[in-house]
Design goal:
By secondary structure, the protein is mainly alpha-helical. The protein folds into five domains: 378 residues, Sodium/glucose cotransporter (Up-down Bundle); 80 residues, no CATH class; 175 residues, no CATH class; 69 residues; 89 residues, Histidine kinase-like ATPase, C-terminal domain (Heat Shock Protein 90). 75% of the residues lie in helices and 5% in strands.
Length: 865
């Protein structure tokens, strides 16, 4: 390729990656900073580096080639990656608290089973890392060859040098920050490429061809496990779905500040990766649909040079290179830690300057990987995805099995684990080399052998341990309590469901919104009908005669809302129901029907999307997704039953278009609308909480003024928060226009917290004054005490805890405890206890327990661990 826009984009990306990597490496001085940083990474950054490490260039080539060649078989196995990410985040992460202070997977294994297991784990991890880096450099060689028409070997060497420059020097911090840039690059490139090919291809008739149907939609054939191909891909599904917890991914776990952040990071990464793999598989599907006779190993090259245009081509090359570098640098960094920290140290090999030793090891590993890549015969017609399987061949049967068992609470001796490791390695060698069984990868029988011999040696040799459970139960208990509370809250909400209140919550609270919705519905209807083809209108005259008045009638009713008689306005349920009818029927159902009548014309799709977004902004996002999904699907089914000829106007790919529309709109709502609404809900709850407190305490604050014997204490305790409120309020008033949005938000936060502290103190004094009254009366009522504690804990955490809190609350509460008492005093008591715990515990675990002591006594304990 000559020096043009594509080469400028490609070279610019490489230079940017190197510069960012070197810049972010500044200040790394210790082995811990090199290995896992300072644990100050955000959740989004960790999620980005997880996806960037997972999304290797080898995987991209392999997915495209294998999906083109094997269709649904490969798509089925690809989806297991997402299951693996969710499994790590939801199942494994809460059980891994004891490993968060470890620098590597080998150190974690050594802490459990001794130094020999640690050394073997380090060796297996080094072999895995070298294999994966070599596989990435092979793809790098192909990309450089495509870009500059140079020999593949030169590309391998250049790719290794670029990747080694910053990962060798900067450690995990430079790797992580460059991963973010690389994720943005290829996560943008893949869907852009899919959209361009989709727009370029005449997909309406191609997707309905018998070849496409047979390869991509033959579910019966794929899930028929009596044939060897289905069995092979079932094993590949297991390989992808079982968390290997390799060196690089253990590092991604170790850089998190707590298990909660691990869970969030892997769940977010799972959704991002699902979107990426579906886009990659969609690219393969479209390429096969339009060009079914390509050699699988040439598909990626064909896509780059024949399915794109100048500019996009350079962007694609940069995106694939981002996948390559992001994976290779992660394994290079983690492997250098394994060698110095977990291989040399247990063997007694002293390295006085460990940080320098890691950097030298990293450079040597790059050279070894380049040698492996050059000696393996690149571009000779075999599938690159098999290299990834080969790289894991000895790691998973040796390390993964005992480590996963340890996470779930099974501990044994180093002897039993070593026996299992040896059995796994021997099984892999026998299965692959002697038996030569190809349709079942040797990894699966190797893992089974390891597990079998580990259990057998543990129980037959009577080793200590067994299913002893995990060391730190606090995060797991906290998650179980939270899940139990959510289930209980959901059941309670179902039992107390009120349709009128539900409609009220999912309707606008401003009468102008009723007018604007009715107006937009009328404009949208006229715009849709006016731009539909004249002959289409002639074909369905009765349908248009029904649609127009049925939509305009409720829309006009909303438009004339200010003219409604007062007795109708007072019955707000009528307006709420009318608005939901217009939103569901007028905007979504009718909008989608007219979109189908227009053959999914871009203008009509745009109007429908705007309608959905408008609805989502005025109701809760869950209800918006429910309305959108049910409206589109019900309209499609009714049209299919009553007007099947409309579907023929759209295309043969209408189901694909509907799926795309649903995924697009749901994604928009979840990504953009959901966080905004959750933030608004939180702010509203805080405001309501403070308003109730102010109104309830006005009279009590007056009594406080008469308590002369505590006057000095009152003045001292309220002086600081009162001054904060006055000072910050004055600053906001004087400099409001010159402050940034962040500064305004921070000022408001200070005022809120200062006010809450002041209000809380004065409330305590007011309650204290009540106790001096001669005729003290309590408002006795039956209270679910356990539920009250959970409710007050949630409110206090929202009001008093900082966003980057390192506290964990562990609740051990009897759910069936009910008492008779005064709710306001009990709330104040619980709030004070929780607030004091938050103030006196900057990080750590706060245990809250509630249990019965006989028939008339309770024990409530809040303990800082």
């Amino acid at each position: 390729m000559n020096f043009n826009i594509d080469s400028i984009i490609f070279i610019g990306f490489l230079l940017t990656s190197v510069l960012i990597g070197l810049f972010s490496s500044y200040g790394v001085r210790t082995i811990r900073e090199y290995a896992i940083g300072n644990k100050n990474f955000t959740t989004a950054t960790i999620a980005a580096t997880i996806v960037a490490t997972w999304a290797s260039g080898n995987a991209f080539f392999g997915m495209v080639e294998e999906t083109y060649k094997n269709g649904l078989y490969q798509i089925f196995s690809d989806c297991a990656d997402v299951i693996c990410m969710f499994s790590i985040g939801i199942i494994l992460a809460p059980r891994m608290s004891e490993f968060l202070d470890k620098l590597s997977i080998a150190e974690a294994m050594g802490s459990l089973y001794g130094k020999y297991v640690r050394i073997i784990t380090a060796i297996a991890g080094l072999a895995m890392a070298a294999g994966i880096i070599a596989a990435q450099l092979q793809v790098a060689g192909l990309i450089f060859s495509y870009s500059f028409n140079c020999p593949i070997e030169y590309g391998v060497i250049i790719g290794g040098i670029i990747m080694g420059l910053y990962s060798t020097w900067g450690g995990v911090r430079s790797v992580t920050f460059t991963d973010v840039i690389q994720l943005v690059t290829f996560a943008t490139m893949v869907p852009t490429l899919a959209f361009f090919i989709f727009d370029k291809t005449h997909v309406t008739s191609i997707l309905a061809s018998p070849e496409v149907t047979r390869k991509f939609f033959s579910f019966g054939e794929v899930f028929n496990f009596t044939n060897s191909k289905s069995l092979y891909y079932a094993c590949l599904f297991l390989f992808n779905g079982i968390p290997s917890v390799g060196p690089a991914f253990f590092q991604r776990i170790a850089i998190a500040k707590d298990t909660k952040q691990i869970t969030k990071s892997f769940v977010i990464a799972g959704f991002i990766w699902l979107f990426i793999i579906l886009s990659i598989d969609f690219v393969s599907l479209l390429t096969f649909a339009s060009h079914p006779d390509l050699a699988p190993t040439n598909v990626v090259k064909f896509i780059i040079f024949e399915q794109s245009y100048p500019g996009l081509r350079g962007f694609i090359l940069a995106g694939i290179m981002a996948m390559i570098i992001s994976t290779a640098d992660s394994y290079n960094n983690s492997a250098s830690v394994l060698f110095v920290h977990d291989f040399c140290k247990p063997l007694g090999i002293k390295i006085t300057r460990e940080l320098l030793g890691m950097r030298i090891t990293s450079a040597i590993l790059v050279l070894v990987s380049i040698k492996l890549a050059l000696s393996s015969g690149i571009g000779q017609g075999y599938s690159l995805i098999r290299n990834l399987i080969a790289a894991n061949t000895f790691y998973m049967p040796i390390v993964t099995v005992p480590f996963l068992l340890a996470i779930f609470g099974f501990r044994s001796s180093g002897k039993a684990v070593l026996i299992g490791m040896i059995a796994g390695a021997i099984t892999v060698l026998i299965w692959g080399q002697l038996l030569g069984i190809q349709y079942i990868p040797s990894i699966i029988p190797g893992m089974i052998a390891n597990m079998t011999f580990l259990f057998a040696s543990h129980y037959l040799l009577k080793q200590e341990g067994g299913w002893v459970g995990i060391k730190d139960l606090a995060p797991l208990i906290a998650i179980r309590e939270e899940r139990s509370e959510k289930i209980q809250r959901f059941i309670t909400s179902l039992r107390g469901f009120n349709l009128s209140k539900f409609i009220e919550k999912n309707s606008p609270n401003n009468q102008l919104m009723y007018i604007y919705t009715g107006l937009f519905c009328c404009i949208s209807l006229y715009a849709n009908i006016a731009t539909i083809d004249y002959y289409t209108k002639l074909s369905f005259p009765g349908l248009f005669q029904f649609i127009t008045p049925s939509v305009l009638l409720p829309a006009t009713a909303l438009l004339s809302y200010p003219l409604w008689p007062n007795y109708l306005k007072e019955k707000e349920a009528i307006a709420h129901i009318a608005w939901n009818i217009v939103a569901f029927y007028g905007l979504i159902c009718t909008g989608f029907l007219l979109t189908m009548l227009s053959s999914f014309d871009p203008f009509h799709v745009m109007l429908l999307t705007i309608s959905i977004i408008i609805v989502a902004m005025l109701v809760r996002w869950q209800w918006a997704i429910t309305m959108t999904t049910s409206g589109i699907l019900s309209t499609f089914l009714l049209t299919k039953h009553n007007f099947p000829s409309i579907l023929s106007l759209s295309s043969d790919a209408i189901k694909l278009q509907i799926m795309y529309l649903l995924v697009l709109t749901s994604g928009l709502l979840i990504v953009f609308i959901k966080p905004k609404q959750e933030q608004e809900t939180l702010l509203t709850s805080r405001v309501n909480y403070l308003r109730r407190k102010i109104l309830a305490k006005e009279e009590e604050m007056m009594r406080t003024l008469s308590l002369l014997n505590v006057e000095n204490n009152v003045q001292t305790r309220r002086h600081k928060p009162l001054n904060d409120i006055i000072f910050i309020s004055q600053m906001l008033f004087d400099f409001y226009d010159g402050l940034s949005g962040t500064e305004k938000q921070e000022a408001a936060k200070i005022i809120l917290k200062s006010f809450v502290r002041l209000e809380n103190f004065e409330s305590n004094i007011a309650n204290l004054s009540k106790l001096t009254a001669p005729n003290l009366e309590f408002a006795n009522e039956e209270i679910n005490f356990a539920g009250l504690i959970s409710e007050r804990l949630k409110i206090c955490r929202n009001l008093y805890e900082e966003e980057d809190s390192k506290r964990e609350f562990v609740l051990s509460i009897d759910k069936n405890i009910k008492i008779i008492g005064d709710r306001s005093y009990l709330e104040q008591m619980i709030d004070n206890l929780i607030i004091n715990a938050i103030v006196n515990c900057s990080k750590g675990i706060i245990n809250i327990s509630l249990e019965k002591l006989g028939t008339k006594s309770l024990s409530l304990r809040i303990k800082i661990a």
